[in-house]
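Data availability (excerpt). The following record was deposited with the supplementary files.
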Amino acid sequence: MSAVMPPAWAGHVLRYRAAHDVPYWEQSDRPYEPFVPNAPTTDRWFDPATGVEARHPAERPLVAGSAPAMLYSATAAYTGRDTLVVATPLGMPFLAAGRRLNPWAVVTDWHKQASDIAVVDRCKDRDQWRVVLGRGTERLYLAESDATPAKLVRTEAHYLWGQVRAEYLWTTWWGVRGGGLYPLGSFRIVDGVTYERLGVRMGTAALVPADSAPRLAVPAVAAMSDTTVFPTPTPDTVRIGENLFLLVAPAYTHAVAMVRDTVFLLDATSSEARSRQDSAWIAQLFPKHRAIALVVTDLAWPHVSGVRFWVARGATIISHAASRDVLQRIVNRRWTLRPDALEATRRSATFRFVPVADSLRLAGGKIIVHALRGALVENALGVWVPAARFFWAGDYVQRDGTSPYTRDVVRTVCALGINPDVVGAQHIRPTPWSAIAIGTARTAQNDSGTTSLAPCR
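Predicted structure:
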């Protein structure tokens, strides 16, 4: 603390301006780098006395005493507006990770538990010797030369990978007006891949009087989980056709159909908990089924978080040929922190994968899986159920009628020469296909002045 924090801060808080890049790795076109950047600029404040940090969009200046947009302590997350501050448990996983990018917050938390800390190692890291402190399973690396914090290492639970090694790295320390040092660059590195970057604008870090800062007081609440958890209310069923249903929940919809004695499940998102709910519905809707085939339409991490459960239950996985390696990695990953259903059946579970390169006819053509066509939907699939005139579009038909994903789905359907009556997707209710196609045509007309895409029929 004495290496980087001011000797006294009574009545003062740290203020700085930063750009925080939390890439849209779940929205990127590939499950590997580079990811779509997302780097909003915020004004930030940290109160060393309470350990509360806050951030607020830089383009919306705050009046002193007003509540900033987001606040977070070591154990809880909040949202603020005017003078109101409200606890926000769903924000905790994201804000907790962001708080660890602040080394002042980290060393303040560690200092409060100094009796639980021991020197556990001395090693070379980033070309220099470090003294490593241990607190439980966490490790704090300090520069051997002057005790400047170098990085925090911890194991974090993850909804897809089970657990990850997270490193919070701080570099290029710069003077703080009023006393102390603060890094110009902070990074969150997950299993060797940089997932967050925070850059402090040079010259903005300063100690300022607390009464000139926003409202940083937060109500006392129970400690919140910092692990991402998807809410899983029980899905409702919507009948689309004979032996064809949608399983509809507020966040994600799936589709399920039975042909002969095989159930085809179209996507398995969210979590094992959601997959167990789907499994219960399948048993109720199709009690005589003998096999399950899961069609995975794309690789966004929340969209494949149920795959491990279905592999554990013996399902065959059908997906784009380019998805094999990532799905294999998901299945091979050992969950040691919180073992799941797959770990319980690891010895007997087999990853059975059926690739789709262009189109694949299943169940004698009663289910047809098609690769979507277009640069924005590369490696994604749609599913055509001819008897119900139903097209499943995964994540690629959305509520936003201007989505270019929807444009590529419409173009795919037109190119295939099929004419659905109804389209289903993860984030919409069942919708007449004509509404999707006509809406896309109108968007194209508004953009160009001419109708470049008309409904297929």
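Summary of structural features: Residues 236-448 form a domain with the Metallo-beta-lactamase; Chain A fold (CATH 3.60.15.10).
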